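In response to reviewer comment 3 from the previous cycle, which asked for concrete evidence that the modeling workflow produces usable outputs, we include below a single protein chain processed end to end. The sequence was submitted unchanged, and the resulting structure tokens are shown without manual editing.
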Amino acid sequence: MSAALAVSSGLIFMAGSSTCARADENTGVLAADGILLADSSNPQQTTRVEYALKIEGKLLTPAQNGTSAWNLNSSGKFAFDQRRFASDATGPFAVRAVRRFAAAETESVVGKDHATSVVLPSQARLIHLYGTEDQLLQLSPHVRLTRPQVDLLQIPCDPLVATSLLPARNLKDEREKWNADAWVIPMLVGVDAAVSQTATCQLKLLTASEAVVTFEGTTTGAVTGSATKVTLKGELIFDRTQRFIRAFEAVQSEQREPGPFSPGLNVTATIVWTQASAVPANSLPDTMPEQVPDERKLLLTLATPGQVMLLHNRNWHVFHETPEMVMLRMMHDGSLVAQCNISPSPAVPAGESTSEEEYLDEVQAALAERKGAINSSKIHDDINGWRVHHVRALGKANDKTLIWDYFLCTAKSGQQTSLIFSYAAEDEKRVAGSPEQMLGTLTVLANRPKVALPR
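The workflow returned the following structure tokens.
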């Protein structure tokens, strides 16, 4: 189970004029031009965030007679120092920040005793964050992350996006209500393909030093391909002197249908975090790149069965994993595009390989039930030190042409691993490049890695 509800975030920087800021400070509560609640992104300011998450409810999985419901209890604990940087961009693209995590971990129990946990390794505690259209893009400048680690860092109601609940204008008086921008609630709760959203914010209390804001929002759409409806209700305390949200508390309720990437959910999450000024640690950088790194630096690490490691892009999600196989699924615009099954194959003597005829027979046998036919067969003698036998097969289902790409990869040691990609012919352009990229990063490991791997 991922850290949170697989959520994404973003930030909008609100700059008030110095005249308004002084007027507001001098009058204490109501400035000459109205009430200003402007967040700060001063890179000289470092804050410490203490964050807690608790999720309770049901996890829903497909069953022969409908859906099975399993009790779900999950908790998360995060603590980090944060420094934000100003940007000329607007909306979610304005976010640029660096974090140093002291703690980042979740524990989940499904059913009576199926317990899982995810912990961010010490080598990956420094994280760069960039705002994108539908989520916070997070990466370590030192090591490559795994999919579970990326999901771990996508916390609901991230402080960087919560600032966008503040009004984007001066309020006329304490009774005035305002709406957050259309992208804010979906990002707060992790809906990556929103269909509808509403958000209403209102002052509950205003003094010269702080403002208490209540907020309520609803959004419908999809999370990694699963239809969902989410409601969010809570309040925050904005420190008017230090110009950041000092405390935040919210309840997030979600009803999510089972989908191609994850089970369904009927859960309630309680999110509580605080933020305070902090003395910057020597290990927290005072600069970071302005531009999002290229795709090669965003690749994720996957340790597969059979002690083989590879890299994959962030469109691929781990759908199922056993000691014998890992199943990845590729998502594009919230829809399932392709599947990749990775598993070890029987080893051969060092320096040898499975013959072309033998592998073709194996593929043909696998295609029998699918009513597919072999279209081509090609052997690559050396792809990153591996001999790769690629067999392409074609078939039909639901009036669509299907493609199966079989890859048998043989190391010089005789170790073999199999990658099988399946997708519709209409999605071939979207899948193009993924097999070659994975094959080009295959590495045999002496032991399955227990720590983050360097870039």
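The chain has two domains: 18-277, 299-454. We consider this sufficient to address the reviewer's concern, and the full set will be provided in the supplementary archive.
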